[in-house]
Amino acid sequence: MKFSKHSMGSMDSMGPTSNINKAAQTLYAYGLAFLTGREVSQKKLFEKLCERSEPEMARHVLERLVMEGWVSDRRFAESYLNYRSQRGFGPRYIENNLREAGLSRELIKSVFMSAEIDWEILLEHLIARKFPEIDNKKMRDKAERFLVYRGFEWSMVNKKLGRK
Prior knowledge:
This protein is mostly helical. It has helices spanning 18-35, 42-50, 55-67, 73-86, 91-100, 105-115, 119-130, 137-149, 154-160. The N and C termini lie far apart (60 Å).
C-alpha cells in the first residue's frame, strides 16, 4: 500500500479498505506524536511503529514520514553528535551508538566531518572538570579508564594525561 495525498481516504468511507485507512491514519498520527520534540533514527521509529501494527504497514508509514521530511537519519545523527559531544562523550562512543541506531558508516563519517568538533579541546575541558588534580598513579589510571570509556582514543588520552 503506497501513500499519496488521497490514499488515506475519508474517515467516513465504508468498504474493505476503510479499516486499513483508519489503521494507517492512526499509525501515522502515532509516528508524528512520537517524533514530537526529538529526532530519532528510522530504525528506532520503525521499531516503535511495529509495536502498534504489522511490519508492512509500519514500513509504509515510515516511508511516508521520511518522504514528507518528518524523519531524517542525517538530522538525527547531527543532533545526537552535538548533544553527546557537549556532554563530554568522545567520538568512539558516539560513533558506536549511531551504528547501533542503524546508521551507515558513510553517513556517520559525513556527519563527523561536517561537525568540526575539536576533540582535543573537548577532552581537555572534560579532564579539567572531572579530574582537576591528578597527583598520583591511581588517580591517573582512574581518569584514563573513565576517558576511554567515554569514547576517547587511548593515544589522545595518554597525550593529555602526560603519558607517552
